[in-house]
Amino acid sequence: MEKPAKKISTSYGLYLGISLILIVVLAYAFDLSLFTKWWFGISLLLFVVIMASMATSKAKKASTSLFKFKDAFGAYFLTVFIGTFISLLFGIILFNFVDSEAAETLTELTIESTRDMMEGFGAPEAQINETLQQLQEENQYSLLNQLKGYGFQLIMYAVIGLIVALVFKEKDTTNA
């Protein structure tokens, strides 16, 4: 990846990270239950993908050579990696050091919303109870679990990034 593309992706990654922190702070301050809403998670996912796609587009415009698949994916993924890593660090600090009670409250809210969702889908009571017991026993906001979640997020964003890279890559017309 060219130096201007790295600079653009890094800048967008920082903007993304700061934006995600702001969103988390607002949700934390106004209504913790937002973290348990499916549409909130989807909105964050779309926001990350849009920001990373914008960075990829800008990197393509700044490119002085053929913008290959590798360049497009690199610009996208660098933006996602930086932005979500900043957000991860903030989440770890917030839920483990600043306000660990918020993590406990979120776990309770998650258990309630999971029960409602599973009952809505008609899941058997035994399965509901087993799932809820697992949620109670595991601290979703521990350092290890947040790092695991981050790893799975990166994999999901990488798969989306492959599609974005296909859209933004330039074809080599000299061999045609």
TrEMBL record:
The keyword Membrane applies. Keywords: Membrane, Transmembrane, Transmembrane helix. The keyword Transmembrane applies. The chain crosses the membrane at residues 12-30, 36-55, 75-98, 150-168. Pfam families: DUF4199. InterPro entries: DUF4199 (IPR025250). This is DUF4199 domain-containing protein. It comes from Christiangramia sabulilitoris.
